[in-house]
Task: inverse folding
């Protein structure tokens, strides 16, 4: 079996060594970068299966690196941050990160995040049967990971696509944030449901004609989110 390759991007060597040790012990191959410029070069040259990306980096910070990667690739990105500020987490998600983890973190939590993101990617890649969902003027092509409004392709990250696909396939059914974290992100999240809210907001900005008055992804106040059953 080919080992999964994980790129670790952090300017602190002791953090890189800890991550390498835990990932290698679980059977992953690892490669390292210590600044933002080197990270972008490694991504292009090595095509990793997943990226662990620190925010505070020399050359280019993690936000810039994430944004540039997302222009061409859907590789899972887990942001690493020593900060507790909500704005850092939200900004990382809005730029296309799939997940984040705050330092210090336990090896168990780290591996849960890594394995869940890789598993979700594998499940999508292994799909062999095409399926088309028609939702109003949106066409969701499950096999091609593509959403169109008429002939216009709407660019989504992999996680955004997974969320809208999940909700559209079960139109009218309301899912709590915790349930969506489990079903779409693929593991028991560690208590922070803000991830769902940010991803829904990004989707509304891309899918809705008037994001402040959504037609597709609706909110049931105090409960969760659902896809409009009338489509």
Result:
């Amino acid at each position: 079996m080919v080992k999964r390759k994980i790129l670790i991007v952090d300017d602190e060597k002791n953090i890189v060594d800890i991550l390498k040790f835990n990932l290698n012990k679980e059977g992953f191959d690892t490669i390292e970068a210590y600044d933002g410029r080197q990270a972008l070069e490694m991504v292009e040259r090595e095509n990793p299966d997943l990226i662990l990306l620190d925010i505070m980096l020399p050359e280019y910070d993690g936000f810039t690196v994430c944004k540039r990667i997302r222009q061409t690739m859907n590789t899972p990105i887990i942001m690493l941050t020593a900060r507790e500020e909500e704005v850092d987490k939200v900004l990382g998600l809005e730029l296309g990160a799939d997940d984040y983890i705050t330092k210090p973190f336990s090896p168990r939590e780290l591996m849960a995040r890594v394995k869940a993101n890789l598993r979700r990617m594998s499940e999508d890649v292994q799909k062999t049967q095409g399926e088309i969902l028609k939702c109003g003027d949106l066409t969701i092509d499950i096999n091609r990971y593509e959403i169109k409004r008429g002939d216009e392709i709407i660019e989504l990250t992999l996680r955004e696509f997974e969320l809208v696909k999940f909700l559209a396939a079960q139109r009218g059914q309301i899912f709590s944030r915790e349930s969506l974290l489990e079903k779409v992100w693929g593991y028991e999240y560690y208590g922070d449901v803000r991830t769902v809210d940010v991803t829904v907001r990004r989707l509304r900005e891309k899918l809705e004609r008037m994001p402040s008055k959504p037609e597709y992804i609706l909110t049931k106040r105090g409960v969760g989110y659902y896809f409009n059953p009338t489509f």
